[in-house]
TrEMBL record:
This is Deoxyguanosinetriphosphate triphosphohydrolase. Residues 59-264 form the HD/PDEase domain. The keyword Transmembrane does not apply. It comes from the Bacteria. It comes from Sphingobacterium olei.
Length: 447
């Protein structure tokens, strides 16, 4: 793989148009970022759970604030990488004109990396999958291919993001978001189909990156950017190198910022957070600054900022030093796992504490259980009603609740289920709970 082809500014749906940034205020990749910011799926992230239940008296991160922070870190990673490469090669811009745009590409990809996540975080993904593996959805297996069934039984937010960005939804622009090919490729963490994913020890196949319905779309991206075949999977591909920066930005943010939220919610004390973050902050001069801050929240913010800075610099350095491996597709682990051994050990400690004290905190577990029940119940109502050829009175009423943009003219079972999942997975936590209550008669809409 090579940067000249990988950093294509060709735009999805407008392949024949020749980009010309000379007289524009924004580059093609900055346009990607702006299109995402102004989009409905991005706005809906405001009411989707990140880890903790959506705010009561204390504000915590949701999917939108998380995505904005990941995009900020991603831009820094891309810019630092470019600066390091520029130091080594002063003629870099003439040889690779778009390499200076890496920060903008990564930032846009980071902004969209969670667009496909359903309500209630990973619990929502599990609810959709279990509907087909354990629930009433099991009956549909005989009506679809093995590849299609693998999509449904392993619902994946990463793959759903690519669908949202490229699928021609009913009544919407047939070109989807019309993002650049480089940005689209940079969000596909696992460039394989569901049937080939979930392979332990294989970084390209840990999960999967596109549904069977988007297979042709992804292959168009592969052809345009020259992504290479995965030697372990004849039907899969190697990652676009910038995926590693997007992945690192996400890893940096959720590992560090979940600690900040836990402190705000009094799950972790200040002393516990300081013990976890201080080793990542570099040097011993920080204690004096911390002592000068009377507010523990401000001290945590300073620790968070310093820790993130350390991780950004470390990851950008690894990425710059190992260019040959990334372009050859032979770098077999996340950037975070390639940092200094002491940093890696400390991040593992943070992950261990997070699993024990944060991700299994009572409020987190409660929202996961509630979300699982809500999502499963909605699927039990919408999928059978939408699939019935001879719809009864209430089936018609239920189908009428699905907005027209999510309907499909295709008649096969997989496409119809996919249409319902487009609707249900796009719901916010609040909307899903409210709709569940109304459909179950728990609350009655006011007249």
């Amino acid at each position: 793989m090579n940067w000249k082809q990988l950093l294509s500014a060709k735009r999805w749906g407008y392949e024949a148009r020749i980009p010309n940034d000379q007289f524009d205020a924004r580059s093609e990749f900055q346009r990607d970022y702006d299109r995402l910011v102004f989009s409905s799926p991005f706005r809906r992230l405001q009411n989707k759970t990140q880890v903790f239940p959506l705010p009561g008296a204390v504000f915590v991160h949701n999917r939108l604030t998380h995505s904005l922070e990941v995009a900020s870190v991603g831009r820094s990673l891309g810019r630092l990488f470019y600066n390091l490469m520029k130091q080594q090669n002063p003629d870099l811009d003439s040889e690779y004109p778009f390499l200076q745009e890496v920060g903008n590409i990564v930032s846009a990809a980071c902004l969209s990396h969670d667009l496909g996540n359903p309500a209630f975080g990973h619990s929502g993904e599990a609810a959709i999958s279990s509907f087909f593996t354990e629930g009433k959805g099991q009956d549909y297996q005989k009506e679809m291919t093995e590849e299609e069934w693998a999509d449904l039984t392993h619902f994946e937010g990463n793959a759903n993001a690519l669908r949202i960005l490229t699928h021609p939804f009913n009544g919407k622009d047939g070109k989807g978001f019309a993002l650049t090919y480089a940005t689209l490729a940079s969000i596909v963490k696992y460039p394989c189909a569901a049937i080939d994913g979930h392979v332990k020890g294989n970084h390209h196949r840990k999960k999967y990156g596109f549904f069977d319905s988007e297979k042709e779309a992804f292959e168009k991206i592969v052809t345009e950017l020259g992504l290479e075949k995965d030697p372990t999977n004849p039907r899969g591909y190697l990652r676009h190198p910038l995926v590693y920066l997007v992945e690192a930005a996400d890893d940096i943010c959720y590992n560090i910022i979940d600690l900040e939220d836990a402190h705000h919610l009094k799950i972790l004390s200040y002393e516990e957070v300081e013990e976890l973050l201080l080793p990542l902050c570099g040097g011993g001069g920080l204690r004096g600054r911390l002592a000068g801050l009377a507010d523990s929240g401000s001290r945590v913010e300073l620790l968070r900022a310093k820790a993130i800075n350390t991780l950004i610099n470390g990851c950008a350095g690894v990425f710059a030093r190992n260019q040959d491996k990334f372009l050859a597709g032979t770098f077999e682990k996340p950037l975070m796992d390639a940092l200094d051994s002491q940093i890696v050990a400390q991040m593992e400690r943070i992950e261990e504490i997070s699993v024990k004290r944060i991700y299994n905190a009572p409020t987190v577990v409660q929202i996961e259980i509630a979300g699982f029940k809500v999502m499963n119940a909605l699927l039990e109502e919408f999928i059978p009603a939408y699939l019935k050829a001879d719809k009864g009175h209430f089936d018609k009423k239920i189908v009428a609740m699905i907005p027209q943009q999510f309907h499909t003219d295709r008649t096969d079972t997989y496409s119809k289920i996919r249409a319902v999942l487009d609707y249900v997975s796009g719901m916010t936590d609040i909307y899903a709970v409210d709709l569940y209550r109304k459909m179950k008669g728990i609350s009655i809409p006011s007249l």
